[in-house]
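User: Sequence recovery, please. Input:
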């Protein structure tokens, strides 16, 4: 891959028309990632209060947030995710403020019954980790 996922949003696995739910937004998120997802899907991101099924999920996660809370957030987000759509945990890259320890997302994902993939660079300051339910997909 020659471009970051923010420049090539289809790397997230989202498609035109998808409704993507965003969890734990704050003013430190990378708006270019958000804009590229919205451009690809043609839909605005919906927040965690959205109460219908969604086609994909992104969760912005930072160190200092409670790991058990991340597990709970993963379970809550997965419960509204239709047809096993893409779920991503976005974290600050190592060395950036808020970067979690290397095992934090993996541990929270396992607690929630999910597998965590290898991190993917999604912007200069953020990595993305795709989650899948145990026994699902590649």
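Assistant: Recovered sequence (138 residues):
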């Amino acid at each position: 891959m020659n471009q970051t996922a923010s420049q090539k949003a289809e790397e997230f696995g989202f498609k035109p028309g998808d409704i993507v739910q965003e969890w734990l937004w704050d003013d430190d998120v990378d708006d270019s990632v958000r804009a590229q997802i919205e451009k690809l899907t043609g839909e605005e991101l919906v927040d965690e209060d959205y109460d219908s099924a969604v086609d994909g999920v992104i969760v912005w996660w930072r160190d200092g947030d409670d790991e058990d809370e991340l597990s709970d957030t993963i379970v809550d987000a997965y419960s509204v995710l239709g047809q096993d759509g893409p779920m991503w945990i976005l974290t600050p890259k190592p060395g950036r403020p808020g970067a979690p320890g290397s095992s934090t997302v993996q541990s929270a994902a396992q607690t929630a019954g999910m597998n965590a993939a290898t991190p993917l660079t999604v912007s200069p300051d953020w990595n993305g980790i795709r989650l899948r339910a145990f026994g699902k997909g590649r």
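The mean pLDDT is 87.
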